[in-house]
From TrEMBL:
Belongs to the pseudouridine synthase RsuA family. Keywords: Isomerase, RNA-binding. PANTHER family: PSEUDOURIDINE SYNTHASE FAMILY PROTEIN-RELATED, RNA-BINDING S4 DOMAIN-CONTAINING PROTEIN. It comes from Bacillus selenitireducens (strain ATCC 700615 / DSM 15326 / MLS10). This is Pseudouridine synthase. Residues 2-60 form the RNA-binding S4 domain.
């Protein structure tokens, strides 16, 4: 017997935390009976479990690494008909993105049907580091970037300390390329951090996510994660 939210996450419906909300909203049934108690248990082998009327079936877990191009939505669907990250990976499994990248941000994003794994990677307490390359307007000095290294106050609170490094500057154009590593995942966080010190982001790309990078991939390309990569990411999060 397993908790319902765990079974729903393992089936690739959504993350465990979102599965809890589905249960609370009365959208989950076990053997024809509505279940609204988070923590209720069931057995996928012997019980008939459904979410929004769709029977639950445990899928083989899959893990994709995608080089998301700019102009693609980090979502399972879009009501405006725009291209999403789901459109760029194989369609035989129902997957969802782990976290999100802004519409106008490119780079590394993981997609999976393993809700447990997704929750491990997304939760800020697990401190999975994410590295971005930002082209910014202006020429930030070391003193400017130290504000980000110490953590800077945004409208939703102070950020955790970042690691920053200037990659190159173009004095003629008045722009700089800066590498920044964070472990949080707030909405448009990197852009807001640079805005806060007066250097707006012109272009942004996520280069690394934990041990993963974009080596060998072009924008729009994807590959399956190797078993040792999945194992290592779990270990990093759990430690």
């Amino acid at each position: 017997m397993e908790r319902l939210q765990k079974l729903i996450a393992q089936a690739g419906i959504t993350s465990r935390r979102k599965a809890e909300k589905l249960i609370e909203e009365g959208r989950v049934y076990v053997n024809g009976n509505q279940v609204k108690e988070v923590g209720a248990k069931a057995d996928l082998q012997t019980d008939e479990i459904s979410v929004d009327g769709v029977p639950l079936q445990k899928e083989e877990p899959v893990y994709y690494l995608l080089y998301k191009p700019s102009g693609v939505i980090s979502s399972a669907g879009d009501d405006k008909g725009r291209k999403t990250v789901i459109d760029l990976v194989p369609g035989e499994f129902r997957v969802f993105p782990v976290g999100r990248l802004d519409f106008d941000t490119s780079g590394l994003i993981v997609l999976t049907n393993d809700g447990e794994f997704a929750n491990l990677l997304m939760h800020p307490k697990y401190r999975i580091h994410k590295t971005y390359i930002a082209k910014v307007k202006g020429l930030p000095l070391r003193e400017d970037l130290k504000k980000l290294d110490r953590g800077i106050v945004l409208e939703d609170g102070k950020t955790a300390p970042a690691k920053t490094k200037v990659i190159k500057t173009d004095k003629r154009k008045g722009t700089a390329v800066v590498e920044i590593t964070i472990h949080e995942g707030r909405n448009r966080q990197v852009r807001r951090m640079f805005d806060a010190i007066g250097f707006p982001v012109m272009k942004l790309k996520r280069e690394r996510y934990g041990i993963l990078d974009l080596k060998g991939l072009n924008a729009g390309d994807w590959r399956e994660l190797k078993p040792h990569e999945v194992k290592t990411l779990r270990e990093i999060a759990e430690k």
